[in-house]
């Protein structure tokens, strides 16, 4: 078969919808298979051959790349390559990409197959269909079709990719092979399940993130300036807001405390974007706006060009500080885990820090350096923490040591603050974790696919802090922190929070 022949099988969903409608009007029966099909193997070949026997025409729809939630390094092959590979199979008549969603429901509603064909591993168990499978069955039957199953040899694309393909960086492959010997997916996910009933208090600086996408045009004709054309923009809830959402995906009850500016509070915008189980407690300062960080990007590659801060980082007025003090004095002891996200934007005064350190039953702290606070916002301003989570540059700045042994610095900050757990993130070199009783644990970076680094540290903090509070073993905290970070760098800015279901799916994929 010439390439032009099988490539013609690949149709946009709109076009294929019309084609299938015409075929059905001619009495043809349509069979539909849907999936990722990242690595084509003998099990797939037999599955498609069996599926074709149900109908006259076999359609295969593919999950788009951005919705393949199977962990770092997946999909191994792009959607275009996956579509081309499937189209080359004689048994398949048409291939299409699903609409930009994770579920198969849109393609079922568009194609309206007579038979929706799944493999034997998806066959109904004693408890009946649940979740997406139940919705798919209902959708197929609503159009007069039925869900059917093939019964043949089953392979796992995930296991084949993990064992025979380099979908992870080399050091991560070595790390994962060793980690799989000690941890099963179910054992890891059981530790995630322990977080469901945890009560968490998140305290920190409010930040609104704006991304302004531009197209560079070149140098100005009269000035030494680079000129860009504005294309579009989006606004996201960042800072403590997205941190609370990260936590809320794993923990049942989350209270978030922050301070908004009365002049341009953005409160309605923030409330709309908080997870349903996040309870916000806002204080207000009349002399400022809510902090906005406006970033300008090259829209083609998401390269950041420059950013502008709209904020006032002066300390809170005494009256507002007293309001926060009274609230926290009553609330701090009620929580299993207190997480502080400190950008030094004026909310967390020394008095409030001392109060938090004195009353929090379990305290996790992350201080961050930015252009407005370099050298002033050090983790050492907290007299006591249970869990420290900071980047390597911030640790070295706090310890006043640019080139010293990292493990020694981690031990020093642990002793200085009385922290029983410390995690230091190192960008593309993964992380180093430490506890006095378990020693040092290193975790390599688990993915080389990076779309945007903004917010990755907050996602890692949002999962690891509750895990540490729950007594999770250190090496498992490091692993899950790496999974969270790998998920976060595939999200533009703080567009969405990481989700427990995606983390759990990544765990199953990586440890298969």
What report would you give on this structure?
This protein is globular. Helix 12 packs parallel to helix 13 (350-359) and helix 17 (474-488) crosses helix 18 (500-510). It has 2 domains: 3-164, HUPs (Rossmann fold, 3-Layer(aba) Sandwich), CATH 3.40.50; 188-205 and 246-284 and 297-510, Ribokinase (UDP-N-acetylmuramoyl-L-alanine:D-glutamate ligase). It is built from 18 helices and 18 strands. The two termini are 36 Å apart. The protein has helices at residues 3-7, 13-25, 42-52, 79-87, 105-111, 131-142, 157-164, 170-180, 185-193, 239-248, 267-273, 318-331, 350-359, 392-399, 406-417, 456-469, 474-488, 500-510; strands spanning 30-35, 57-62, 94-97, 115-118, 146-149, 199-204, 206-219, 226-238, 253-261, 278-285, 292-298, 303-310, 337-342, 363-367, 387-391, 421-425, 431-435, 439-443. Strands 10-9-6-13-14-15-16-17-18 form a 9-stranded mixed sheet, with helices on both faces. The chain is of the alpha/beta class and 512 residues long. Residues 126-130 have low confidence and may be disordered. The chain is 36% helix and 23% strand.
Question: What's the short version?
Answer:
This protein is an alpha/beta fold. It is built from 18 helices and 18 strands.
Feature tags:
512 residues, alpha/beta, Rossmann fold, UDP-N-acetylmuramoyl-L-alanine:D-glutamate ligase, 2 domains, nine-stranded mixed beta sheet, 18 helices
